[in-house]
Every structure is written in structure tokens, then in C-alpha cells.
Amino acid sequence: LYGSFECALLYMNVLRKGVLYISSAHLCFESTIFPPANTKLPLARVRSAERCRDPTFHLIPNSIRVRHDETGSLCFASVYPAHERDEAVALLRRCLDNRTEQPR
Fold first, then answer.
1. Share of the chain above pLDDT 70, in %
2. What are phi and psi of 95, to 5 degrees?
3. Which residues contact 29 (CB under 8 A, 6 or more apart)?
4. pLDDT tens profile 62-92
5. What does the H/E/C string look like for the chain?
6. Sheet harboring 26-31: ordered strands across?
7. Cβ atoms of 88 and 22 closer than 8 Å
8. Parallel, antiparallel, or unpaired for β 46-52 and 63-68?
9. What is the CA radius of gyration of the chain?
10. Is this prediction's pTM over 0.90?
11. In degrees, to the nearest 5, what angle opens at C-alpha 14 toward C-alphas 10 and 17?
């Protein structure tokens, strides 16, 4: 496990509070409230990670957008403080740069 970050996943148009975990092989999100919105995404499927604006109000750049496969994406919002968001994005980018392609 490289890092964990408190945030909220935009899931079915609702923000679900939880924790984003970044490991050498997966990106995982575990919600801490009901109903659960747990996600496990292999890094081999992730194409990019970038900072973005809050998906609800589109004003505050406190979110991370992870693009995967061809058209899919996940938005992790409310990553505070800003240095935590920047650390998470940098960590994801390092993992993507250093990954070895796994057979599908």
C-alpha cells in the first residue's frame, strides 16, 4: 500500500464519503457510509489521473479524475487539503509510469 486518502466518490450522482487506497497493482475505494460504493480497479486499466474541479459545484479544484479503459472515469471529490490531492495525483502518476503491463 503506497497511500490512503480521505475523499468522496461520485457514485450514481451522489458523493459517497470514504477512503481511496493506492497500491502497486490496484486503485481501491471503500465507502464508510451506507449504501456502500466500494470499487477496486486494476492499475493496468487506468489511463490517466488528473486534478479537476468539484463535480457538484464546479468551483473548487479539490477533486481527482481517474480515466480508465476507453471512455470510463471515476471522480474522487473533497480531497482536502490541497497538498493531499496533489500528493495523490503525483502518486497515481508515478504508479502509472512505473507499472508493468500485466496480461489481460
1. 89
2. -65, -40
3. 7, 9, 18, 19, 20, 21, 37, 38, 39, 74, 76
4. 899 999 987 789 999 988 888 889 999 999 9
5. CCEEEEEEEEECCEEEEEEEEECCCEEEEEECCCCCCCEEEEHHHEEEEEEECCCCCCCCCCEEEEEECCCEEEEEECCCCHHHHHHHHHHHHHHHHHCCCCCC
6. 39-42, 26-31, 14-22, 3-11, 72-77, 63-68, 46-52
7. yes
8. antiparallel
9. 13
10. no
11. 65
Please tell me the total number of residues recorded for the chain in this structure: 104
Higher-confidence residue of 26 and 38: namely 26
Cell of 74: 471515476
| Alpha carbon distance 41, 46 (integer Å) | 8
